[in-house]
Amino acid sequence: MKKIINTEHAPAPIGPYNQAVLVGNMLYTSGQIAINPKTNELVLETIELETEQVMQNMKAVLAAADMTFENVIKSSIFISDMENFSKINSVYATYFNSDTAPARETVEVANLPKYVNVEISMIAVK
Question: InterPro entries attached here (predicted)?
Fold first, then answer.
């Protein structure tokens, strides 16, 4: 049985999807972009601030399912320019212990929703 996970501490879905779905002990998150949930505005000043907002949004979604980044087993990072990889990775790395970090792929894509520079989704387990 699936349980829908939504929180006001992350951006509201803008289409026919939810922030996350919990199935048993597995959490599947939708991709998060850098929308500040308090203002509903994009945070695009720098790629570091953009990535920080994405990770804060993901933190809120995980918390709504009573999980943390320690529960994450897989991350998918989509970026619009591979030149930003090291800056994105630097921010992302602050959220994980390198010894227990999840599996991950990082893919450069032609475009992302609202023309942002980074989108991240995760799979977590309790």
Answer: RidA, RutC-like_sf, YjgF/YER057c/UK114
